[in-house]
Amino acid sequence: MKKTLKPVSGPPIDDWTVFANDLALTLARLDVGEFFIAEQKDSGYYVQALGGDSGLRVEAVSNFYLESDERLSDAACNQLLALGWKAPTFLPGTNPNRENANPNYFLNFDPPVPCKRVATLLVNTLRRAFGCTEPAGIEMRQIGSRGRRSAPRSTAVPISRALRALASERQQQRRRLADGILKYMETGGEIHDAIGAGVDGFENSLVIIADSNKPDEVDYISAIMGRDGGYDSTASFVPDPTGRDTLWLIDCPGEIKTVCRDIDCFGLRNKVLTATGDGVRVYVVDGGSQLRKIMEKVGEQYGRQVQFVRGHSRFMFKQ
After folding, report:
1. What is the DSSP code (8-state) at residue 88?
2. Pairing mode, if any, of strands 105-109 and 55-60?
3. Whether the predicted pLDDT of 240 surpasses 60
């Protein structure tokens, strides 16, 4: 006799429970160097996690990166502390211990990582501290150790908006962050406002050239600016005559949008542009120093000398 299976009754599973379970699974699958970010769409408030050899680091955004009209209230900040987050240790005007410096609220979890407990913490943070009412209002994305993204969300915008954003408070916060990084490294350097140019638009960004001969410093700069600065495009460079990479510079006449379109014809994708008094300076990051012939053609096109510096570089832009 064929039996009929009857549904088993039980307590209903709400959307937040499903979200927390999915989040725990995602955290458990994070590889070393991978980021996971859950961001509230309306406010931009976010929590994030970074997989590492020594466990898992999780963070919740602080007012360090928020515009004046977006900042967390005192009640929200107190709620973050009540949930168990450690307060930020990297604030403007401070000189923190490098290993523990963090502009966000943060926690570290040693292996084996209690992924379900961490997921619960992140959910409670989104709901109680950031006021998110439903999982549908949260956008999740994952950034791999090689820069790959799932569910990508580009910050690319039209050129006019990117240029206006160079004067925004958030851009100034990013400059302060970059300046703090260079001071923290106990080295000088150059910081330039720039426009990052990619296949789907533009983004206000920075060019950071550190006066350091340590190759690992460029990784530190890029990791902090990509994670805490919120950039899709960041060009970081440490000069070193023995380095395998090259930073190319050329000053071109015209406006950023026109110059960018012309440079695109040469197939140069890893570039940022800064406005000068009489034109545009283009920085091209050449990993492995393979673009000499192309850059010579760019120089011939504009009738300008192409400058270059050898060293160690990192360029990040959503591909």
Report:
1. P
2. antiparallel
3. yes
